[in-house]
Amino acid sequence: MRKLLNTLFVTQPEVYLSLDGDNIVLLKDQEKLGRVPLHNLESIVTFGYTGASPALMGYCAERNISIVFLKMNGEFLARVIGASKGNVVLRKKQSLLSDNERESAVIARNFIIGKIYNHKWMIERMTRDYPLRIDVAEFKEASEHMSSMMTAIRECEDLEQLRGLEGQAALSYNKLFDHMILQQKEDFSFRTRSRRPPLDPVNAMLSLAYTLLAHDMTSALEAVGLDAYIGFLHRDRPGRASLALDVMEELRGIYADRFVLSLINKRVVSAGDFVRKENGAVLMTDEARKDFLAAWQTKKQESIVHPFLGEKISWGLVPHAQALLLARYLRGDLDEYPPFLWK
User: Fold this and answer.
1) What is the structure's pLDDT at 335?
2) What is the CA radius of gyration of the chain?
3) Which residue numbers belong to the known binding site for Mn(2+)?
4) Fewer CB near the last or first residue (10 Å), C or N of the chain?
5) If DSSP states are collapsed to H, E and C, what string results for 239-279?
6) Positive or negative, the Cα torsion across 258, 262, 264, 269?
7) Spans in the chain with pLDDT lower than 50
8) pLDDT of 28-83, one tens digit each?
9) Beta-carbon contacts of residue 299 (< 8 Å; ≥ 6 apart)
10) pLDDT at 1
11) Which residues cross the membrane (predicted)?
């Protein structure tokens, strides 16, 4: 159980939610785990689907407190809310800003600043931890280039120009990604990003990690009442969760890329975990994919201190924290959307 930005997160499995007066009571096997006053809550997010009492759902619906049900892996199931009040206004504001390319660029640039900042942090961390195993001068040069890109992006109000600056920074980062692979170099290397299909084991794992991250981000956005398919940087396309792709930009490197690198460098995966198809696609074996998913879920349980909120949360709640912050910005409660800047 975790309260964050007036949202109660229930992360323990098999917990039933009930009402007692003006309080939510958390029960597991008839044992009371906790009791939280409802008067200050805006929403309740529960991982797992044991259920909630009709009395609690009715109480929350009358007071515009949403209850969101997610599977234990973070997959969105349902959102229960009463007569629409704030959510219509929120989604209308989201749509209006998305239709305005200048306003979209002003929001999108913070996603990209977060992405580049975190890539820069990863590069700086490598120079600090492995100065004898990498070309420090090359890494420092890339770090300085990223700093200059962030300065330019901070003043950018044009989407096409923003994408160009982001692309330049991405080139610097991608050139060094292979150098961050420190173990099993004979089996794992990175030359360029290949998606459909992935053409090597590293790209196969990156594609799976990005899919999982997008999945978690989509659920987090839906949980706060935003439309995950109306983006700012990524424009509307049928079937694409554009806003989820927007917000996850700042988490790609620090969350997904580092996860994949750790699996390689800690020798959790090996060459035998992959198969090559006739069309050149490289895929994980069924058993390796199960191990990958289990490791991803374990990663989501690790605790960190959120750099903006200053509160201790799990990695798995970071997408939810960012979704809450974005919703607050769109409502006018924050002057600017605060990207996740890892320290």
Assistant:
1) 94
2) 21
3) 166, 234, 249
4) C
5) CCCHHHHHHHHHHHHHHHHHHHHHHHHCCCCCHHHEEECCC
6) negative
7) none
8) 888 888 889 998 888 888 887 788 999 998 998 888 788 888 887 677 788 887 66
9) 259, 315
10) 63
11) none
Amino acid identity of residue 165, one-letter, is: L
Instruction: Check if the beta carbon of residue 117 is closer than 8 Å to that of residue 105.
Output: no
Tokens coding 284: 């994980």
Supply the pTM of this predicted model.
0.82
pLDDT of the residue at 182? 94
Work out the mean pLDDT of the chain and round it to a whole number: 90
- Residue pair 193/260 in contact by the 8 Å Cβ criterion: no
> In whole angstroms, how far apart are CA 118 and each of 169, 248, 306?
12, 12, 14
Please answer whether residues 247 and 221 qualify as being in contact, where contact means their C-beta atoms are separated by less than 8 angstroms.
yes
Which residues are annotated as part of the binding site?
A: 166, 234, 249
The closest alpha carbon to 78, from 128, 44, 53, belongs to: 44
Going by DSSP bridges, is the β-strand pair 31-37/23-28 parallel, antiparallel, or unpaired?
A: antiparallel
